[in-house]
């Protein structure tokens, strides 16, 4: 079960023509797919397009009604390979994943798909994780479009434009026999808006029909000599067809006054930011009415030479707003202008920064710089210089405000794994530790500071493969991989590889029962029963199947002492080959989401329930914060005692504590201090439990009263 | 890039004067920024506005800082082009759900003079970097509050978390109330309340929190006060037989310099509570000794009163057992974890006494003998060195701690007491010795006691830091800036666990002392 339920949104997916659909950009895409008669959908979750997968998961009944096949692909490569169904059959298919990391994984299948070409529309929806809020390396999907020759749409970030782009994507794909990628930037995935719905369409051909009537065409298979034919086809037929489609269907849009002597060419995704910048410079109203001529490229690849040359005609200078680097579009347009002997000045990177997100400030400054040089008369004098009071009297807060990177949630079962790792290193010395992608990568941050590299999803142990100690008694590498990464490709790339090559490192598989970082989607080893998916496949069995002999399953990661001791055993064991620890405890976010309402309900119904939580005795805590250096839990923090005799704040646990046990276990394993206590609040206790409690309380009370009477007491 | 003065341009309105209003919210993950954003969108739409929201929170962003962004504009039948993220110098309303997030908003240029209404909750959620410091690593909130006042056009700042908790709700509701009360949006109060009422979950509590914050923002109700310092401890009970002895101590207390009486009173009570009245007399001996060497403003006496109390009340198993078996402690736990009368509380204490704790809790001769025995240590490590979970809600568990705490009268004969007293004497004597020539330095030496805290390894690490800090003493004595340096070295020792900053500070001292 995913973290967020979309049952309500799913109802909106049934909406017919004329209705107003409200929701996030990513929901608009799902509706648009149905309106365009999609036949099958797949993909791999990942910010910012996880919700698309979650919505489809929650909408499986609806999809079945329309005969649409949906699956949670094992990886982006699987998702891309799935589009093979559109090679021979006139079925529209769509897959979604995050880019560029997902595109990297998918690129083998995508290159094959793009070589042979498609019959049914094939749409790849890319959640472009670039700029502020991104969690990955900063690269461009544009490069993939160019190298494999797939078309790339980058619609304006409003819901109607996004919905229109989905339709264009399918038709463009079919018109040019080429898979199409549609880019959704982080903020347009999460933008809330509305659009006028159309009717959903059943796919003209369902996947079942294709199976009943299989087709093959040797010329579509990616093998010589067909591959040479494909390459020619790409330039001779598919490219011109695509350009014609883009031109004939006005995929790209013009705004402003064509007579303007200067122009802006913008990627669709940057349009809103550009208009805001123009508005702030007094050159556009809030609805985008402007005297400056704008060509908005909703299709950024392929570029239509004639359209761009016509646009530049009669203009002194054109500014290209192209986010990300290298500046592929600028290079292409510069080349176009030069080859056609045009003298229009092309500006782009230079007035705008080469790298990084084009924020509001950067766009205002960049466009202003362009105008100052090429159309100084346009800039109202007031905006040509600073018109705000200087901030200089405000002190520099960068030394005051602490960084707040994301970290493990309250009660996270991965925290004790890294607390144990820290203790292992205290005992055995520092080790080379390879990290992977997933929540567990938060280990690289304080307070754990664990992990040296991250090389890709499921590749943690693989990235330690060169680090094999020739000294059998020397230090071994430690590597981490999550259950998500494990099933994504880690089973073969990491575990299989280590087993085959007799690598002797320690591999810790962090199993929280879900693909948790992406929103808690089920995977093969999830413990929940899922009516449409096969779950409950133990990781340890798969690892053993790969030939690993030393496998330890730990079913309660909160047992820090056991975690630590098992890791030490792995790092000192004489056994050859990889040592694999499967550290399993359920993601606390998902567990609480399930258990909290159930507990509240049971308590309300009068059943006996137990709610655990931890606390700190503030007069026993000495304020050294060693516990926090092994925790970082949001619910464990510092507070003032109000006691003038004490200098340092003490530890305190707030109401958000879920009683996971890490505090007590760490205090025990690291021999910290006795200030922690675990409180279990029993609601609706049994009669005998109540009797016992009150009897004990009476005796304890008598003892306490007796002592207090004999000594000085203070409050 | 051509260098010009930064352009911080203003948005221009639409043809009918309709303006885009920009609103950003900075929150810590898990604070309910998403709920707040949805409410803001709903209230805008209910008032005939176009509204758009975005967030940069990826699903993976769990506990970090997150930004939500809303733009809205009066609906005149056309759809405005809304931007998708806040831009420096272009935010009309900035909501910060925590004090340092408000600071971050200022730092990032989202708070502009003459434009931005800043609505900030002044409570703190410490970042990990603040929590892991062995001393007090918390950021200085005053700098942020000062900057907020300079950077914003209008500031609505108070502890909205406390208000929300009082109302049984969460901070999104009080932030929403503060937004409504600020008047920064042209919407009537009841339209906000309707939105909350329609949201369906915890409506009553949300409305309470909304109302409290609304009144504070309007200025019609006082903002929640910060928690004060408890400067006084009341004496609850003095048994008949101890009355005279206690009064004698109180008389001695009254004769101390007035400036040091308050803190010495606290110290005295702490020490007597820890051991007995005789221990209190021993404490006052120390303070009087310091007072004799001191002069106004009696900073040395104050330091002695504070740190001698802490030094005498070292943390041992007896102390822990005593504190954990007190009635007042049980009541505090019940309040803290909120146990109702019809519920039963089970309480588990986490102990892990090592060989050191075990032997030092024995009579000095026996403990010392055992410590010298490697066989005893090995036996302990094999059979006894493990975590103990003790249920203090059961008679057996409570009884065990009770028995340990009942050893108090014999504490003076235990091995731990012997070593602690030797350490205290050495430390205090050296401070008194210095006091003859440099009282400020002596006070700093006393304050070095702050370094010794914790149990087990933590305690050992504290001791070693104390020793290293004290090792600078011979190099510093006689210098006019000795006290300053001593304080600097101590501050460095509290900055990180491993003592890297301390190493640096000591190196500096060595360089100029050489």
From TrEMBL, chain A:
InterPro entries given in the database record: HACL1-like, THDP-binding, TPP_enzyme_TPP-bd
Entry-linked Pfam families: TPP_enzyme_C
Keyword Ribosomal protein included in the entry's annotation: no
Domain annotation Thiamine pyrophosphate enzyme TPP-binding: ranges: 450-582
Keywords per UniProt: Metal-binding
Domain of life: Bacteria
Coiled coil (UniProt feature): none
Entry keyword annotation includes Cell inner membrane: no
Name of protein: Thiamine pyrophosphate-dependent enzyme
Annotated organism of origin: Paracoccus fontiphilus
Automatic annotation (TrEMBL), chain B:
InterPro entries: DUF6537, IorB_Oxidoreductase, Pyrv/ketoisovalerate_OxRed_cat, Pyrv_flavodox_OxRed_cen
Keywords: Oxidoreductase
Annotated ranges, domain Pyruvate/ketoisovalerate oxidoreductase catalytic: 29-215
Boundaries of every DUF6537 domain copy: 261-471
Pfam families: DUF6537, POR
Organism: Paracoccus fontiphilus
Protein name: Indolepyruvate oxidoreductase subunit beta family protein
Protein origin, superkingdom: Bacteria
């Amino acid at each position: 079960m995913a973290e967020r339920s979309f049952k309500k949104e799913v109802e909106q997916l049934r909406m017919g023509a004329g209705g107003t659909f409200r929701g996030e950009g990513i929901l608009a895409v799902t509706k648009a797919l149905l309106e365009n008669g999609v036949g099958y959908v797949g993909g791999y979750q990942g910010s910012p397009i996880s919700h698309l997968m979650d919505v489809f998961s929650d909408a499986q009944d609806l999809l079945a009604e329309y005969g649409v096949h949906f699956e949670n692909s094992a990886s982006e490569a699987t998702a891309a390979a799935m589009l093979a169904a559109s090679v021979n059959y006139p079925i529209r298919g769509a897959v979604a994943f995050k880019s560029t990391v997902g595109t990297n994984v998918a690129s083998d299948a995508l290159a094959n798909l793009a070589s042979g070409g498609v019959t049914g529309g094939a749409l790849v929806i890319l959640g472009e994780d670039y700029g502020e809020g991104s969690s990955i390396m900063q690269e461009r999907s544009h490069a993939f479009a160019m190298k494999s020759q797939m078309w790339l749409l980058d619609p304006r970030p409003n819901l109607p434009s996004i919905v229109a782009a989905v339709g264009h994507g399918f038709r463009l794909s079919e018109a040019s026999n080429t898979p199409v990628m549609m880019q959704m930037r982080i903020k347009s995935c999460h933008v809330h808006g509305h659009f006028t719905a159309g009717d959903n369409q059943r796919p003209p051909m369902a996947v079942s029909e294709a199976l009943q009537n299989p087709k093959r065409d040797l010329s579509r298979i990616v093998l010589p000599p067909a591959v040479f034919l494909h390459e020619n086809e790409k330039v001779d037929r598919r490219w011109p067809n695509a350009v014609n489609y883009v031109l004939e269907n006005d995929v790209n849009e013009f705004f402003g006054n064509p007579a303007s002597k200067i122009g802006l060419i913008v990627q669709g995704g940057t349009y809103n930011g550009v208009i805001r910048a123009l508005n702030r410079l007094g050159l556009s109203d809030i609805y985008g009415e402007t005297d400056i001529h704008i060509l908005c490229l909703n299709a950024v690849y392929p570029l239509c030479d004639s359209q761009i040359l016509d646009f530049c005609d009669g203009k002194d200078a054109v500014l290209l707003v192209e986010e990300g680097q290298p500046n592929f579009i600028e290079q292409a347009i510069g080349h176009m202008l030069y080859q056609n002997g045009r003298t229009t000045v092309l500006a782009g990177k230079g007035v705008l920064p080469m790298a990084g997100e084009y924020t509001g400030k950067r766009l205002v400054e960049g466009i202003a710089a362009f105008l100052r040089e090429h159309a100084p008369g346009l800039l109202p004098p007031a905006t040509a210089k600073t018109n705000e009071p200087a901030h200089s009297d405000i002190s520099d807060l960068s030394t005051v405000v602490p960084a707040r990177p994301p970290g493990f949630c309250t009660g996270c079962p991965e925290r004790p794994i890294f607390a144990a790792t820290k203790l292992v290193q205290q005992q055995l010395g520092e080790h080379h530790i390879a990290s992977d992608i997933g929540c567990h990568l938060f280990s690289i941050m304080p307070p754990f500071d664990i992990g040296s590299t991250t090389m890709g999803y499921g590749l943690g142990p693989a990235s330690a493969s060169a680090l094999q100690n020739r000294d059998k008694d020397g230090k071994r590498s430690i590597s981490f991989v999550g259950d998500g990464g494990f099933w994504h490709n880690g089973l073969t790339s990491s575990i299989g590889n280590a087993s085959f090559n007799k690598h002797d490192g320690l591999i810790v598989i962090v199993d929280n029962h879900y693909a948790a970082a992406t929103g808690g989607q089920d995977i093969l080893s999830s413990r929940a029963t899922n009516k449409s998916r096969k779950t409950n496949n133990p990781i340890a069995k798969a690892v053993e199947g790969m030939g690993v002999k030393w496998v330890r399953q730990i079913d309660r990661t909160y047992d820090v002492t056991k975690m630590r001791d098992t890791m030490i055993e792995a790092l000192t064991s004489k056994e050859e080959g990889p040592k694999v620890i499967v550290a399993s405890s359920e993601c606390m976010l998902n567990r609480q989401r399930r258990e909290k309402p159930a507990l509240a309900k049971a308590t309300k119904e009068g059943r006996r329930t137990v709610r655990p939580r931890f606390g700190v005795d503030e007069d026993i805590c000495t304020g050294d914060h060693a516990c926090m250096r092994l925790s970082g839990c949001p619910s464990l923090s510092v507070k003032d005692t109000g006691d003038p005799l004490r200098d340092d704040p003490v530890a305190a646990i707030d109401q958000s504590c879920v009683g996971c046990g890490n505090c007590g276990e760490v205090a025990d394993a690291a021999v910290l201090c006795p200030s922690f206590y675990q409180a279990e609040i029993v609601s609706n206790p049994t009669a005998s439990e109540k009797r016992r409690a009150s009897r004990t309380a009476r005796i304890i009370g008598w003892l306490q009263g007796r002592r207090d009477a004999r000594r000085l007491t203070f409050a | 890039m051509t260098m010009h003065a930064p352009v911080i341009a203003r948005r221009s309105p639409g043809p009918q004067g309709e303006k885009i209003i920009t609103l950003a919210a900075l929150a810590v993950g898990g604070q309910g920024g998403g709920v707040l954003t949805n409410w803001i969108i709903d209230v805008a739409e209910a008032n005939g506005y176009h509204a758009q929201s975005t967030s940069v929170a990826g699903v993976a962003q769990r506990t970090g800082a997150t930004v939500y962004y809303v733009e809205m504009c009066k609906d005149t039948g056309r759809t405005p082009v809304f931007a998708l993220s806040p831009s420096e110098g272009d935010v009309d309303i900035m909501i910060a759900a925590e004090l340092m997030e408000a600071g971050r908003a200022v730092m990032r240029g989202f708070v502009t003079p003459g434009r931005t209404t800043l609505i900030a909750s002044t409570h703190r959620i410490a970042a990990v970097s603040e929590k892991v410091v062995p001393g007090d690593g918390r950021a200085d909130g005053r700098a942020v509050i000062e900057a907020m006042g300079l950077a914003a056009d209008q500031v609505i700042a108070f502890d909205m978390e406390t208000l929300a908790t009082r109302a049984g709700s969460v901070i999104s509701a009080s932030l929403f109330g503060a937004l409504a009360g600020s008047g920064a949006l042209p919407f009537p109060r009841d339209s906000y309340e309707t939105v909350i009422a329609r949201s369906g979950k915890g409506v009553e509590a949300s409305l309470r929190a909304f109302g409290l914050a609304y009144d504070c923002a309007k200025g019609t109700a006082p903002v929640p006060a910060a928690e004060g310092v408890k400067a006084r401890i009341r004496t609850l009970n003095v048994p008949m037989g101890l009355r005279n002895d206690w009064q004698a101590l109180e008389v001695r207390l009254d004769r101390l310099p007035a400036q040091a009486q308050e803190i010495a009173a606290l110290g005295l009570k702490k020490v007597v509570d820890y051991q007995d009245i005789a221990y209190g007399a021993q404490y006052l001996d120390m303070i009087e000794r310091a007072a004799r060497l001191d002069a106004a403003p009696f900073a040395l006496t104050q330091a002695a009163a504070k740190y001698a109390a802490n030094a005498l009340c070292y943390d041992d198993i007896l102390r822990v057992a005593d504190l954990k078996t007190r009635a007042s402690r049980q009541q505090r736990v019940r309040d803290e974890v909120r146990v109702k009368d019809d519920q039963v509380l089970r309480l588990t204490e986490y102990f892990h006494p090592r060989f050191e704790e075990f032997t030092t809790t024995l009579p000095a001769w026996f403990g010392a003998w055992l410590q010298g025995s490697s066989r005893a240590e090995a036996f302990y490590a094999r059979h006894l060195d493990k975590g103990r979970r003790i249920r203090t809600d059961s008679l057996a568990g409570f009884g065990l701690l009770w028995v340990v705490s009942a050893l108090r009268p014999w504490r003076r004969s235990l091995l731990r007491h012997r070593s602690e007293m030797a350490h205290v004497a050495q430390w205090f004597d050296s401070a008194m010795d210095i006091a003859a020539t440099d009282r400020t330095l002596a006070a700093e030496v006393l304050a070095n006691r702050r370094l010794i805290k914790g149990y087990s390894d933590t305690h050992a690490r504290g001791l070693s830091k104390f020793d290293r800090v004290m090792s600078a003493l011979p190099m510093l004595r006689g210098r006019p800036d000795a006290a300053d340096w001593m304080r600097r070295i101590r501050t460095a020792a509290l900055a990180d666990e491993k003592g890297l900053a301390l190493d640096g500070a000591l190196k500096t001292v060595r360089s100029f002392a050489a």
